[in-house]
Amino acid sequence: MKTEPRGIVKLTIDLGYLLVFGLKLQLLWLWFTIRGFVVLGFFPALASCAKLLIRRLTRTDDWHDRFAGSDERFAPLYQEFRNFYQASFWEFNGISYLGAILMALLLVDFAVNRSFLHSTWLQYGLIVLLAMTLIYWLYILTIYARYQLTFWQYFRQAWIISIAKFSNTLAIALGIVLITALIVLFPVLSIIALIPLYLTPLIWFSYRSCLFVEAFISQQDVTNLD
């Protein structure tokens, strides 16, 4: 009779599955970023990583099936990645570069004000806008992976969900700090799964915020029906 692994053995095996899956995602992200000549490939490849991660993190089946089952072999994983990459290529590039341009303009305004205008109120206002833009980047990948919206609705939805449960936004920030510390301690992880590692806390906690908002909306709908 075969004995199922338990305790530290099972934890080690599950961690191995996760690292192998992360390595596959890292390779796919790198390949499709290069395929898009980096400038056009970076953001859709990032969105595809997020899509594949959120599909697996939100499943309820066995850990092995989620990260090492027959569907997680490289060929079907490549096909799944490519399908979403192609479907999201132009739209997510537009969403991402619009956000990047906004951040660049705010940084330029911040530098100009600091060097020439010296307006305290403008400086505070720009800091708030920069913080809002950074928070937008923490949520847009999950929003895009989870919902099918119009182009401009993605921006609105990202900001609404980011402030709906701000504790999750803080958890994302803390998670990113912890992942950075982990990579500093074990630099080899940056080669194996840098992108999936950073995406995991971002996806997980932003997804919890999505569920919170969805539950609130459902409750309001039920209340209105009553």
TrEMBL record:
Keyword Glycosyltransferase: no
Keywords on record: Membrane, Transmembrane, Transmembrane helix
Pfam family, one: DUF624
Entries under InterPro entries matching the protein: DUF624
Membrane-crossing residue ranges in chain numbering: 37-54, 92-112, 124-145, 166-199
Domain of life of the organism encoding this protein: Bacteria
Keyword Transmembrane helix: yes
Protein name: DUF624 domain-containing protein
Source organism (scientific name): Lapidilactobacillus achengensis
